[in-house]
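Human: Not sure, check this?
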Amino acid sequence: MIAFYLPARPPQRMNRDTRFDALSAWLERVLPAPRQSIAPASFDASFRRYFRVTLTHEITLPDSGARATTLIAMDAPPPHENCGPYVSVARLLADASVHAPTVLAKDLTQGFLLLSDLGTRTYLSELSDATAPVLYRDATSALLRWQLASRQGVLSPYDETLLLRELNLFPEWYVARHLGISLADEQQAVLAAAFRLILDNNLKQPRVYVHRDYHSRNLMVCPPNPGVLDFQDAVYGPITYDLVSLLRDAYIAWDEERQLDWAVRYWERAREARLPVDGDFAAFWRDFEWMGVQRQLKVLGIFARLYHRDGKDGYLNDLPRVMVYLRSACARYRELLPLARLLDQIEARVPIVGYTF
């Protein structure tokens, strides 16, 4: 038998994860105990990555005195991300008695943080008809503590420039890129007029600390409950914003009766705590809905951008839920009816029953 031997294939060049290599080297210097393993913990909608580090033995965490065998390493590559705000806001949350990860070590130049681990039980995974009352009560309590700690001049203002920049994500990414629609001049005028009305409402609201993404994926079920994540973009802005994020969550929906019940409970406690909410709940609810319109327009744009720019298609499943919030709110206020009609036009939908033009 004649044997034929093929030449060996040249080894394929592997794409090394140089950021992970640098993070691993840094961890060797800063970990409070030897590392047993490291594995991906989560990836979010930004450039940040999180890894769960398992230690060989239990340690005592500073500040809380809690015991832990796992920690979280954050990789936030400059210049895309800046760890400085995360460190600052983590301290603000802790000072307000809100449970956020403790920063155990940091290298702001490389974009590395070592954090305490709040576990794996997100609100989204734990919420049900049975658990919702207690979980939302806890989330409301933490939100009130956060707002009561507010001081002007500490966080960047949630001003007109930022609010409008967020609104403009809707025509740029959702309408033009996702739906492939070029708005006519008349439609652009309708959108601009709606944006002006929305901004006027948002900017007249009392201002407090705003997390900006206070929802079921960023709240963890852990003692003391809840643990709060993803707070690095916190600002000083409208008082209804975080409550909208919580109750009109892009990832889980509740009927309006429950939303109203939880909003009333928040409002009553906020008044007792002397937070600057409107003394008339109807006026407060109107502000809540108008703030929601701003957020929902922004979220539609962000989710479309995550898909078309970043290749993250999982957020597409949440677009219909966000659109229901938006169209329902627009249908309730005469000033927003032109925006409701525009939404019908761009999505070729049958108008919501109850409004006419």
Strands lie at 35-43, 49-60, 67-75, 103-107, 112-116, 207-210, 219-220, 227-228, 235-238. The domain at 18-116 is CATH 3.30.200.20 (Phosphorylase Kinase; domain 1). The chain has two domains: 18-116, 123-347.
